[in-house]
Amino acid sequence: MKLDVNALRYLSKDDFRVLTAVEMGMRNHEIVPAELIDRIASLKHGGTYKVLKNCLKHKLVHHDSSKYDGFRLTYLGYDFLAIKTLVNRGVFASVGRQIGVGKESDIFEVATEDGTVLAMKLHRLGRVSFRAVKSKRDYLRHRSSYSWLYLSRLAALKEYAFMKALGEHGFPVPDAVDCNRHCVIMSLVQGYPLVQVRQLQNPDTVFETILGLVVRLAEHGLIHCDFNEFNIMIDDDEKVTMIDFPQMVSVSHRNAEMYFDRDVECIFKFFRKRYNLTFDEKEVENDDSEVELDESCRPLFSDINKASGFLDKELEASGFTRKDQDDMDKFSSRSVGNSFAPVGTGFVEKDEEKDLESDSEEAEDEDDIAPQINDSSLDNFESLSLVREEGDN
Ligand code: ADP
Ligand code: MG
């Protein structure tokens, strides 16, 4: 999905106020009535409709007049709210090229004021499912757009919390920098996903390192659940970094052993195919092109000394609670109805909600303007200085 941050520069404070009002209204309206948006935004000088038209032009909201005149946020609108909040916090100042497209995420480079390049992951739950389940699974098709945004927000929060906790326990993961809504900011990993690496100097060492990580995760009470050549990054020194954590589960999960074995099998399969690593001495002749590893190196779930719930405290400290996990679990179970996302649970960031309620436009002051980037090496980055429209205060 294209992310044209240019538009962001031309959006005024009123635009963001109205977008935030739509976000709040979506807690209990699939389509937020225009009057409600007007009431929540309560712009000092009026003009909510004009602002909504502008947001519509930039595809930040979707208009629906089938039942009544109303709007909902698009992913782009949600992107802009998250990006604006993070820029205001000083987390980054410009957005660069797209570096990754996952099934349900987009990854971009962003740069801080001093030119440090970071990675920004925007979660997009529902993007695949909308298409994939079109005819089959009604409960997903009819899930409200609110719950897709809500689930994307939970996925981002979970990813941020796990990355932080794992980093603190010495796991090779990106540094978790910050998170807002469906957006996670982390350090940029040098190197490429394992799947894109043509040749490894020491495939057996990399294999053992990766397998060691799966075991160490389980010892910390966790299973990655998507541990494969797409989610393992390798740099020029063949150092391994693991990424992509929203689907991790605890070793106490009822299907833990199956998930663990699946992660292990993915790694075996990949190295068997790509690097000819062989694991069965009896069947394969030892020849020079093959590194021999005994199948007995396969870790067994039952052999691991697992510390269940080990990271729970750290995860909660980063804001990811058990209830959040329960909500995410409901999403993957088949028995959910369509109004899954609980109404009124912190969908809008607390601080911003206060801003709207107290009508304290002045309180936002100069912070709203992000610094320009002049570093020529960052030519391809779009600075996010928010250019005010004339007459805007
Ligand atoms: P998804 O959940 O959609 O699979 P990932 O987190 O796996 O998303 O990211 C998709 C791709 O984006 C990765 O395969 C990788 O190429 C790139 N990527 C993700 N995070 C980073 C990062 N921190 N640094 C560099 N590249 C990254
Ligand atoms: Mg991935």
Could you list some keywords that capture this structure?
alpha+beta, disordered C terminus, binds adenosine-5'-diphosphate
Provide a concise account of the structure shown.
Helices cover 38% and strands 14% of the residues. It contains 14 helices and 14 strands. The model is unreliable at 130-141, 333-349, 359-377 and 386-393 (pLDDT under 50).
Counted beta strands: 14
**Measured on Cα atoms, how large is the radius of gyration?**
23 Å
The major beta sheet can be summarized as: 6 strands, antiparallel
Class inferred from helices and paired strands: alpha+beta
Determine the fraction of residues in helical runs and give it as a percent range: 25-40%
- Overall shape: it is elongated
pLDDT below 50 for ≥5 consecutive residues: which ranges? 130-141, 333-349, 359-377, 386-393
Q: Work out the strand percent.
A: 5-15%
Strand order of the largest sheet: 7-8-6-5-4-14
| Tally of alpha and pi helices | 14
Ligand inventory: adenosine-5'-diphosphate, magnesium ion
Oligomer: single chain
> What's the N-to-C terminus distance?
32 Å
User: Quick check: average pLDDT?
Assistant: 81
Question: What series of H and E elements makes up the topology?
Answer: HHEHHEEHEEEHHHEEEHEEEEHHHHHE
3D structure, described in words:
The protein contains 14 helices and 14 strands. Strands 7-8-6-5-4-14 form a six-stranded antiparallel beta sheet, with helices on both faces. A hairpin with a 2-residue loop joins strand 7 and strand 8. The protein is 38% helix and 14% strand. It binds adenosine-5'-diphosphate and magnesium ion. The site of magnesium ion has 4 residues, from loops.
